[in-house]
């Protein structure tokens, strides 16, 4: 029993660390977004100058920094994928409890890549979820 409790505590500690890293990334993203000049703010700050949308866009392009462009491309790529950027065993189980077996299986697949030491346990859970998914009749 103590081995199982210790393993669970290690898993929870790892998930907390991963969540902390995710939260820090979100804060950095929000700070970047906060410092972004919007068209409405540009018009308000221009003091009534009648600059065109093109002038605004040119100003944005000139003020853009290379690292921010790379980060934006990465964020856009992340948004186009169906998998969440932050996956935990808890999230996988939430998907499973909601009957979203394919999403749960995908989450476990990602966890196997990140935690090879727990791969066998995750594979066993994936097989259980695949059986459940196969046994359920689709809605028509």
Task: Name its key features.
140 residues; mainly alpha; 7 helices; elongated
Brief sketch in words of this structure:
The chain is mostly helical and 140 residues long. Helix content is 76%, strand content 0%. The chain has a domain of 59 residues.
Chain-wise SSE layout:
Blueprint: H1 2-34, H2 39-45, H3 53-63, H4 66-80, H5 89-97, H6 101-114, H7 119-135
Task: Provide a descriptive summary of the structure in words.
- The chain is mostly helical and 140 residues long.
- The protein has a domain at 82-140.
- The chain has 7 helices and no strands.
- α5 runs antiparallel to α6 and α6 runs antiparallel to α7 (119-135).
- The longest helix is centred in the first third of the chain and has 33 residues, at 2-34.
Any idea what the shape is? elongated
Radius of gyration: 22 Å
Q: Can you count the beta strands?
A: 0
- Mean pLDDT metric: 75
Task: Count up the helices.
Answer: 7
Spans of at least 5 consecutive residues whose pLDDT stays below 50 are: 65-81
Straight-line distance between termini: 45 Å
Order of helices and strands: HHHHHHH
- Biggest sheet overview: none
Structural class assignment: mainly alpha
Amount of beta strand = under 5%
- What percentage of residues falls in helices of 4 or more residues? over 70%
